[in-house]
Design a protein that fits this description.
The structure holds 2 protein chains of 2 kinds. By secondary structure, chain A is an all-alpha fold. Chain A has a domain of 228 residues. Chain A is 72% helix and 0% strand. Chain A is built from 21 helices and no strands. Chain B starts with a helix and ends with a helix. Chain B is built from 21 helices and 2 strands. Chain B has a two-stranded antiparallel ribbon with strand order 1-2. By secondary structure, chain B is mostly helical. The chains are: A mainly alpha, B mainly alpha. The interface between A and B is medium-sized, with 34 and 33 residues.
């Protein structure tokens, strides 16, 4: 089965869900989310059947010019699986979040008009899957906009909630701004390199004649790269393009926040890997691009972690935590030259994102239930969870400890790889800053653990978990522990990822 | 085989989580583990104890356990003994049995894993696993100002661990492997400048975990607040992880780097012995007194480490440190267990409130007396063997003609610590057990039969090692 069927099927699923939601009379809309999740699970199963043109060069479709825009390597497969799993879990989270959603839409208390909320993430998923395969800046841009525009709707979905509306406006304006930067940057790159195809840019940058040209005319190209990085920096939350994140995360409906912080960030990072690959491969551009990455990583690590210390709202805390993790991921990218075939920057970024998915979505599942039942998202609303719900508190403790990077959890292995590569790349300053960042992270995640176990409960009725949330939290917590001791399940998905090309010298005639 | 010893407490923890009877399960697991550890001590040379499963190809990390030398055996034995005593002697608050016993098992499993691991990754990871329940239990079930104490230990040890991790990763990056055996085999290849940096990180990181002066202020309030089994396990066993790490990794791998830190280290360990010693004398509560005394005694073990740094060819110092680690672990666990018993029977732990308890509780007075004597270092008890060996090892290269080396001056000063510990321990004993009875002690019940078993277990070990130290020294040959 050619790989592009996956995106086609996902979009079809989304349209089918929208139509079914519109025409099937039903008071509750939870089934839309469940049907979507089942559909996505089916597509997830099909990813192992999907093949690219390399696997079957004789087929008709293998010679289509589509493959100039679209690739299906193991990195693409990994991020497609990532997008599908993430969306599936977000849909399930949305099913349990219906009550809050219904309270803030046009007919308070009724679920009429909330159906699209469960169908739209499927479209964003299609966009992320396409991004995973993009090898042309034009195609990547269209896919990224599919993701972003879907998020404009999802973020401000709770129309009668001021916070959600504020978040929607902020996200819309800053999203549009970042799109502007992105397009402008692509234009400069096109003007300077004459193509928008990333493999072709790679060839040009390694061509001796072109390199002589670029020795004196590099500025326009680098300017374009910097502008595109500004645009992508908005998506992943790199400092100084992070200022929208706390407000938008806090205001958006919790499942959307989870989707933003995992799905959207991963989409940004796969695009960053694909986009930077030609520039990091060539000795002409590598130096400045790596310097840019190191500076971004250090700023993001410091700001995200230090600003998180003072937070009292848990959702806002998670927003800063997502900035902090973006810092670690950027640091991993900045070690591009250090790795080898077994352990290298693209693999480590992907592995880190996978562990980040498990931990963050698990925490958001708990947060969504606390939001519904305690009607608050402050750290103080978790007070005494250890007495009223010991097992839930234990699960959240594991997840938060993993986010903090405590050993024997998935989060530690991710951070460990990043530190290992950074040491191999001799980025000593960045290692020092990352150590401070990890120390700060330890402090603010344990603030929540402290609230759960040490503080007396303000509300002695236990938080009761619906079955879907219970199952998801249990599976995610178990996975965090398992990956922490035995990372092979994720690692084997990344086994065939090609090591990054690092050409040290272009031979000149 | 060794994996079984590590996994047994963790499996018992899972069983308790799923609803098995907490007290019975934990006692059963701890007793079985002690039997296994004793068996291991008799046959540790056998390769059948080693265990290894690959976890990652690059960097090569294995979930590997084994006994590289007798030091691991002694530490595993210490953990198994103290664990059994801890689960036997605690009394869980109503309805919190699962939490109380479960966390003790988790702590024990983590400590065993750290002492048995031969891969640095898991050496570090298992120690962290043991720290988390310590923090949580002090905050949940502690006494007095538990939240402040728990938050303080969390922050101190959390940051200490991160500094330690930085040092360990640096060490691994330079040695190119995480296998501690291979690292030690390739020792000497690390350049001296890097050694100095690594040694500094390791001293601060491990030092925080061991409560080295001036990173010690978390220890006394935490132990005073902690529930009895947690105080016993942390002060008795887990705190020794730092010393174990210094002996296992720092001394063989970065000897030249440590040389540069020798004089500062001597000052700090004198801070432990003299400064904290005087602080201990002024304590008015038994739990704070014991907490501070445990910080103070770390100074002696550091003295042995310093002697080993100063004179690398000094097998005596290494044995001294290990014997004293073992002895201190057993005696401090016994003291914390008995302090808990005193509080349960009289309702107070304030030295001012108590007095004359020996009349109403003679057995308790006898046992506490032995523990106090052990802590002072009376001959015949295990601590004496350790402390004498430490003092001897510091004078290893002294021949009467050359002047005194810094280590020897520090040793002479630290002998004063023996007097200090006699002062506070005997004073505490007099205030609690002798003199006129107070309202609280007049009708206090004596120690019950069930509570005598763990105390007797620890006392027997103290006497056995004290009278025949070769029990341990033979393992260390």
């Amino acid at each position: 089965m050619p790989a592009y069927y996956l995106e086609a099927l996902t979009v079809t699923l989304g349209i089918a869900l929208l139509m079914a939601e519109a025409f099937i009379p039903s008071k509750t809309k939870g089934w839309v989310g469940i049907a979507g999740a089942i559909g996505l699970a089916g597509i997830l199963g099909l990813t192992c059947l999907a093949i690219g043109p390399e696997a079957k060069p004789t087929a008709d479709w293998a010679n289509w010019s589509l493959w100039n825009f679209y690739t299906f390597d193991s990195l693409a497969r990994f991020y497609k699986i990532f997008a599908l799993v993430c969306t599936l879990l977000v849909l399930l989270m949305g099913v349990d979040y219906r009550k809050i959603l219904a309270r803030f839409t046009d007919h308070p208390g009724s679920e009429a008009g909330t159906g699209e909320y469960h169908a739209l993430p499927v479209f964003a998923c299609a966009g992320m899957m396409w991004l995973a395969s993009a090898r042309d800046l034009a195609g990547a841009f269209v896919a990224l906009e599919l993701v972003t525009i879907t998020f404009y709707i999802l973020v401000s979905y709770m129309r009668r909630n001021v916070g959600s509306l504020e978040a929607g406006v902020k996200y819309l304006i800053l999203g549009a701004l970042s799109t502007g930067f992105l397009v402008y940057g692509i234009a400069w790159i096109y003007g300077s390199a004459g193509t928008m195809s990333l493999p072709l840019i790679g060839t040009i940058l390694l061509d001796p004649a072109a390199c002589i040209y670029y020795q004196t005319n590099l500025t326009p190209l680098l300017f374009g790269v910097a502008l595109v990085m500004v645009g992508l920096g908005f998506k992943v939350g790199a400092v100084p393009m992070q200022m929208w994140i706390p407000d938008v995360y806090q205001g958006a409906p919790t499942p959307t926040t989870a989707f933003l912080s995992v799905g959207s960030k991963a989409a940004g990072f796969i695009l960053m890997i694909r986009f930077l690959e030609p520039f990091l491969a060539s000795p002409v551009t590598r130096g400045p691009v790596l310097a840019l990455l190191v500076v971004l990583a250090c700023a993001t690590l410091l700001f995200g972690n230090l600003a998180a210390i003072a937070q009292t709202n848990f959702k806002r805390l998670l927003a800063y935590s997502s900035i902090a993790h973006a810092g670690f991921l950027l640091l991993a990218l900045a070690t591009w030259q250090a790795g080898d075939a077994q352990l290298n920057a693209p693999k480590v970024v992907s592995f880190y994102l996978a562990t980040y998915l498990l931990m963050t979505l698990g925490v958001f599942f708990v947060l969504a239930q606390v939001r519904i039942q305690r009607d608050g998202e402050n750290i103080a609303d978790f007070n005494g969870l250890g007495t009223t719900n010991p097992r839930l508190a234990l699960a959240l403790t594991v997840l938060l400890a993993a986010l903090a990077g405590v050993p024997l959890t998935a989060g530690f292995i991710g951070k460990f790889f990043v530190f290992y590569l950074a040491v191999e790349a001799h980025l000593w300053w960045a290692v020092g800053i990352a150590t401070i960042a990890a120390g700060a992270g330890f402090y603010y995640y344990f603030k929540v653990i402290r609230a759960m176990w040490w503080m007396p409960p303000t509300d002695s009725t236990p938080v009761s978990l619906p079955p879907i949330s219970t199952g998801c939290i249990a599976v995610l917590t178990a996975a965090v522990l398992l990956i922490g001791i035995w990372p092979q399940p994720i690692w084997s998905l990344l086994r065939c990822v090609n090591p990054p090309r690092v050409v040290t010298q272009v031979i000149l005639d | 085989m060794l994996a079984l010893i590590v996994l047994l407490p963790l499996a018992a923890f899972l069983a308790i989580l799923l609803g098995a009877p907490a007290r019975l399960t934990s006692i059963g697991a701890a007793a079985l583990n002690l039997a296994l550890a004793l068996y291991a001590a008799t046959s540790w040379h056998c390769t059948c104890w080693a265990f290894s499963v690959p976890v990652l190809a690059k960097p090569a990390i294995n979930l590997a356990f084994g006994f590289p030398d007798g030091m691991s055996v002694v530490m595993v034995l210490l953990t198994a003994i103290v664990t059994l005593a801890a689960v036997l002697s605690g009394k869980a608050p109503q309805g919190r049995e699962a939490l109380y016993y479960g966390s003790s098992l988790l702590l024990s499993g983590g400590a065993l894993g750290a002492f048995a691991a031969t891969d640095m990754f898991f050496f570090y990871a298992f120690h962290e696993l043991a720290l988390i329940p310590t923090f949580l239990m002090i905050g949940i079930l502690g006494r007095g100002n538990r939240r402040a104490a728990a938050w303080k230990i969390t922050i101190y040890l959390g940051l200490g661990s991160i500094v330690l991790l930085a040092g360990l990763v640096w060490l691994a990056a330079l040695s190119g492997t995480f296998d501690m055996g291979k690292m030690v085999a390739a020792a000497g290849s690390i350049d001296p400048a890097a050694q100095k940096g690594i040694a500094g990180l390791l001293i601060v990181g491990f030092g925080t975990l061991i409560s080295l002066f001036p990173f010690h202020s978390w220890a006394a309030p935490a132990y005073a607040s902690a529930p009895a089994p947690i105080a016993m396990l942390h002060a008795g066993v887990l705190k020794k992880f730092g010393l174990y790490g210094l002996l296992r990794l720092a001394i063989p791998l970065v000897p030249e780097g440590l040389q540069g830190w020798l004089n500062p280290l001597l000052f700090l360990l004198l801070g432990n012995i003299l400064w904290v010693g005087y602080v201990t004398v002024s304590q008015k509560r038994l739990d704070l007194l014991l907490g501070n005394s445990s910080v103070m005694h770390m100074g002696y073990i550091f003295l042995a480490v310093a002697a080993l740094i100063a004179f690398p060819e000094n097998p005596l110092a290494r044995s001294a440190a290990i014997v004293l680690m073992f002895a201190h672990g057993i005696s401090i666990a016994l003291l914390f267990g008995l302090a808990d018993r005193i509080e349960r029977s009289t309702g107070s732990i304030d030295l001012e409130d108590l007095g004359g308890l020996a009349k109403s509780a003679p057995a308790m007075a006898f046992m506490f007396g032995i523990a106090a004597m052990a802590s002072i270092g009376l001959p015949g008890l295990a601590n004496f063997a350790g402390e004498v060996l430490v003092f001897l090892s510091a004078f290893k290269s002294y021949n009467g003609t050359s002047g005194l080396a810094p280590v020897q001056i520090a040793c002479i000063l630290s002998i004063w610590g023996v007097v200090i510990s006699a002062v506070y321990m005997l004073r505490a004993y007099r205030n609690i057990f002798q003199g006129p009875s107070s309202a609280l002690t007049a009708s206090a019940p004596d120690i019950s039969l069930a509570d005598r078993i763990p105390a007797l277990l620890l006392i027997i070990v103290l006497f056995a090692v004290g009278l025949y130290p070769n029990l341990l020294l033979n393992l260390l040959k």
